[in-house]
Amino acid sequence: MKKVLFVCVENSNRSQMAEAFARMHGAGKVEAFSAGSRPSGRVNPKAIQAMSELGYDLSVHQSKGLDGFNGQEVEVAVTMGCGDECPLVHAKQRVDWQIPDPRDMTPDEFRGVRDLIETKVKQLVAML
Q: Which of 6, 12, 17, 77 suits a disulfide with 34, CB 3.0-4.6 Å?
């Protein structure tokens, strides 16, 4: 199984949803993780709601930092807003997705970001 790490700033929205989609669409092929460069300590209730609409319980996830990945190698590190703040993660491949932070978006805009993340995760899983 290939380890994939999704990283955003707070680990409360984008990277959490990406991890969930990788678990959903990459089961048996991908081992998915997420982390934040400056974790908020909580998963955004909007993200929990948006994922519950698709049958995934994001409330069991926790917002966490990059410390646990210091020196650990992953197949792919996908950044979504932290860019060069993730230097301690050893990745065979780095990808930067330019996805806006949906934190303050309306529910419909939030769903649009969620759906964009799902599309990108499906493409990534197919590539692996």
A: 6
pTM of the model: 0.93
Active-site residue numbers?
8, 82, 86
Q: Sign of the CA dihedral 23, 39, 62, 70?
A: positive
Domain that holds residue 116: 2-127
Tell me what the mean pLDDT of segment 43-72 comes to.
92
* Residue 118, both tokens: 């799902």
Q: Are 5 and 74 in contact (CB under 8 A)?
A: yes
Neighbours of 105 (CB within 10 A): 15
CATH code, domain with 51: 3.40.50.2300
Number of other residues whose CB lies within 10 A of the CB of residue 66: 22
